[in-house]
Design brief:
Strand content: 25-35%
Number of helices: 7
Largest sheet: 12 strands, parallel
Distance between the termini: 88 Å
Order of helices and strands: HEEEEEEEEEEEEEEEEEEEEEEHHHHHH
Radius of gyration: 29 Å
């Protein structure tokens, strides 16, 4: 493919892949934790099934013949959709065959994609080979990045394609933008908007045989000079930095979802403490931070004293060395446990603050339940942007961790108090009964 695509196309495609990853992640995120998890070798949702929930399906093969009233997130070698998905379809697989219908958008990272059904909104695909069949209809925009793309169906609005080879034989009601090595527009293709493309050689547009382009056609040759190559090199550093930031956001998102799923009650109470007792959370976090620093110092000193004790354990200093070794050996696991636990709480605190930021922002537009996955991803993005600001970013990172950790400490104490209270009441009731 290096001989087909121009050098600058690679730079643009890197940004497209990154943007697609962000959009796909946002598409996966919903405002509720409730989902239906399907796992197994061959997952089949038959035409007799109707699932009133979001579906997360992971296996060797995923086949949907029934109806899903929600989103589908599928990860498998082979995914086939013959039924109906009322919301969005998000797919990670080797082979995707979409013959059914999806109410909102279809997004995917696949090797081979065959779209033969209907898509209620837009299609965003990163695929080696993409085929939009003659019976397919995409109501809004089509965005495809890959090696080979062929469109025989209908696109309701605009199409953006970046590939090695592009063939268009269908209908596109909006503008078409193409970056490719080879472009063929063949009958009975109809483009009702403008056509602009970037390619080393002129596209084959067979208007004599029936191809219709109603708007303007514009051809741009790629800039392959050294200036263009220098521009690509200059963007590499920024691209790597953004990829790292996106990776951190995704890692924080997965970590947050897992933590909330495993400790739902603690997360809810901690979030309520942060929302209703913000100042107390900050103060508690500062005290916890001081304790964490003390535990880390004790851990370092304990390790040092272990080495000193080993050095003193021979000769006349053997008793002193043994005493130092025993004390330091006892302190090492305690301080290590305290330090690791503190670090985890600070990490969870950052996630909790992300939930809080997203909650506050969403509340301005539309009230949503707390601890929604949408809140988390938006909060993480906001914090990641703030972290890039010199000096201010470090201050925000420290304050977010401390405030979130304080709320978690308060939440843990509250949950423990609630768990102890029923036991005390039961004991008091038994004593009253015995006295009676």
């Amino acid at each position: 493919m290096a001989n087909i695509l121009p050098a600058r196309t690679y730079g643009r495609r890197r940004w497209t892949i990154l943007a697609a990853a962000i959009v796909l992640t946002l598409g996966v995120c919903q405002f509720s934790i409730a989902t239906s998890l399907q796992q197994g070798h061959n997952i089949h949702i038959s035409n007799l099934h109707r699932i009133d929930d979001d579906v997360y399906a992971f296996g060797q093969s995923v086949r949907v013949d029934g109806r899903i009233d929600g989103d589908l997130v599928a990860g498998a070698y082979d995914v086939t959709i013959n039924g109906e998905i009322t919301e969005s379809e998000n797919v990670f697989c080797y082979s995707l065959t979409h013959n059914g219908s999806v109410g909102n958008s279809l997004r995917g990272f696949v090797s081979n994609a065959a779209i033969n059904g209907t898509v209620g909104r837009s299609v965003i695909l990163f695929a080696y080979d993409t085929r939009i069949g003659s019976g397919a209809r995409v109501e809004r925009d089509l965005s495809v990045t890959g090696f080979s793309v062929r469109i025989d169906g209908t696109v309701g609005r605009n199409a953006t394609i970046r590939a090695g080879r592009v063939v268009i034989a269908g209908e596109i009601d909006g503008d078409v933008r193409i970056e490719a090595g080879t472009i063929d527009i063949v009958p009975p293709a109809v483009i009702r908007g403008n056509l602009s493309y970037v390619s080393e050689k002129e596209a084959t547009i067979d208007t004599a045989a029936g191809v219709t382009v109603m708007g303007e056609t514009r051809w741009e040759q790629p800039d392959t000079q050294k200036a263009g190559e220098k521009e690509d090199r200059e963007t590499d550093a920024a691209f790597r930095a953004i990829v790292l930031s996106v990776a951190k956001v995704l890692a924080g998102f997965l970590f947050g979802v897992i933590v909330v799923f495993a400790f739902r009650r603690y997360a809810e109470v901690s979030f309520e403490q942060l929302r209703s007792r913000f100042a107390v959370s900050v103060a508690t976090g500062l005290l916890f931070f001081i304790t964490f620093i003390a535990a880390a110092i004790i851990l370092v000193m304990s390790v040092v004293f272990v080495i000193i004790g080993l050095a003193l354990i021979s000769g006349k200093t053997a008793p002193l060395g043994a005493l130092v070794l025993v004390l330091s050996t006892l302190l090492v696991p305690i301080s290590a446990f305290s330090t690791v636990t503190g670090a985890l709480i600070f990490a969870c605190g950052m996630v909790l603050v992300s939930f809080f930021i997203g909650y506050v922002l969403f509340r301005v537009f539309r009230p949503q339940p707390a601890l929604g996955k949408g809140h988390l991803i938006v909060g993480l993005v906001v914090l990641t942007v703030l972290f890039t600001i010199p000096y201010v970013g470090l201050l925000v990172r420290v304050l977010a961790s401390i405030t979130g950790a304080g709320a978690i400490v308060l939440g843990i104490r509250r949950c423990r108090a609630e768990s102890i209270a029923p036991a005390v009441n039961i004991g008091a009731a038994r004593n009253d009964g015995g006295a009676g």
